[in-house]
Amino acid sequence: LKTIFGSSLRARSEAAQDTETLLRLDALNRMTALGMPHSYAV
Prior knowledge:
Elements: H1 2-5, H2 14-35
């Protein structure tokens, strides 16, 4: 997470930092999902 988005949060308040972290994790999960292969039952 730190490698992709940097080592520090930009938001000042704790609530905003929580939101920022959730948004970063959501973005990381979307990037991971895009890179996963699609498998089909044969």
